[in-house]
Amino acid sequence: MKKLSSFCRVDETQYALSTNKVNMLYYDLPKHFQGEYHSYETPRLCTILQGTKQVHINHSEQFLYRKEQCVLLPPHSTVFMSMSEYTQALVYEFSDSIVEEVSARVCDNLEFDAPSDLDYRHFRVERLQDRIHSLHARVQDILHSGDQNVDFLLDLTCQEMVYELLKRQGCHEILSHHRNHPINQAIRIMKASQGRAISVSELAEETSMSLSNFSQKFKMVTNQTPKEYLTKLRLQQSKLYLNELSVTDTALELGYENISHFIRLFKKEFGITPKQFKLMQN
Asked: A Pfam family in this protein (predicted)?
């Protein structure tokens, strides 16, 4: 499993161990390392294999967490952390599908009242004990097993881990209710558009919010404006199109009538031109 030495999103995307239901991220961080960390669109369960972390989560008070604890982050969390010693960490990034599948099977038997006004920046610190600790150890065994069916085994184990988290009230709220947040609804609409043009006003209407209120809340949750987020999605989609289409056809497919503008945006985002990207793929 590839070790990550920073919180670079490009590296996280490229080097995560990904199954159908979960991404596993392994961080290997030196003594005195510090940096800003983000959970992006999905909940993340953060654990420490070795060392300790001083963290501020979503502007909370600073606290220390250790190997025997875990932190469940809601989507779009911002964490500033520092390490006074060499630290290894394993992070579970749960997909919507694994949370939905487990919830559909068991939530009728779990007696929790949905919060009337869940703070979207809420997080949960838990002790790694009992069943969750055993499952966490099982995941580490699977990762080191060399088994040909690692993905299958990880998905099974992580389904049970999500089940155990859903049984805890605070964790249940984070896992179950983030999908109903209007900003996450907007993000799903953006992604479903596969990079094609969609207006911010359409997104505001879909989430039953005024344009100004939607834009303000979107920026608060994601640290990006809706337009910036859409642009990044379109540019990511353009890399897929460039495998089959010309630069011009890719730009037009994504709604960029000004080809030069598309090329400038692509180079600003990825550091190379679309043409250079195509040549690298051949």
From this structure: AraC_N
Nearest to 87 by CA among 34, 159, 12, 19: 34
| Distance from C-alpha of 146 to C-alpha of 38, rounded to nearest angstrom | 30
In CATH, 181-281 is 2.60.40.10: no
pTM for the model stands at 0.69
Reading the block at residue 266, the tokens are 């692509």
Residue 6 tokens read as: 């920073």
Tell me which residues of the chain have a pLDDT lower than 70.
107-126, 128-129, 176-180, 194-195
User: d(Cα 26, Cα 34) in Å, to the nearest integer?
Assistant: 16
DSSP 2: P
CA angle 150, 154, 159 (to 5 degrees): 155
Question: Which pLDDT belongs to residue 120?
Answer: 40
Q: Which tens digit of pLDDT belongs to each residue from 119-164?
A: 444 566 667 667 888 999 999 999 999 899 999 999 999 999 999 8
One DSSP character per residue, 103-159 reads HHHHGGGS--PPPSS--TT--EEEE--HHHHHHHHHHHHHHTT--TTHHHHHHHHHH
Q: Where are the domains of the chain?
A: 3-179, 181-281
What pLDDT does residue 111 have?
55
3-state secondary structure of 204: helix
